[in-house]
Amino acid sequence: MSHTQTRWPLAYGLRAALPTGALDGWMEEIGGVGPQVLNKTNTLAGTPEYLAPEVIDYPHDHDMAVDWWALGVMVYELLAGQTPFHDEGIADPMARLLAIRRSQEEAMQDGICFPFHFPSKSKGFVQDLLRRCPDRLGCSGGARAVQSHDMFRLQKFNFQSLRARTLPSPFRPEVDIPQVGVDVEPDCCFTLELLVQAIALIERC
């Protein structure tokens, strides 16, 4: 995301379904990004659970800061197994969007609800991303401010090693690759048990 925002001033709609992983645990790419826009836009589009409040609220004016909100939602979903905001089970698209907006407002007023297994080191990071602008992490300072957050700073996280792909991945999926010509129905290898194991590994880092 830092790489993209540094080179193209756009808001592209990040979500957890986009990153594609490799067998060594590294993310290969983020594909299927949304509309590319310069500076600001007032388009109401995107995955409802990932839309920042300023996208939903009229007149929908927003800029790249919505990507930092989406990052907060994605981190929460990856570590909790669900998104932080609820749609009240409503099927109608517009009514569902407004229900998510109500859930966002409740979370910003009363605090985000974290499940018991959520890594304590990551809570402050998510909370700082899921704020209104201009208080949202990343609104001022961009990627540099995000990388300077206590979650990374206190652990002395090495972003240079991350960019060079020399940093060991905390989670490497075990995937059975079938032989060529063998018709095998693949099993779902990523389960809740594996997610909990990955969270435990992150907690020990």
UniProtKB/TrEMBL annotation:
The keyword Ligase does not apply. Pfam families: Pkinase. It comes from the Eukaryota. Keywords: ATP-binding, Kinase, Nucleotide-binding, Serine/threonine-protein kinase, Transferase. Residues 1-152 form the Protein kinase domain. GO terms for molecular function: ATP binding; protein serine/threonine kinase activity. InterPro entries: Kinase-like_dom_sf (IPR011009), Prot_kinase_dom (IPR000719). PANTHER family: CYCLIC NUCLEOTIDE-DEPENDENT PROTEIN KINASE. This is Gad8 protein.
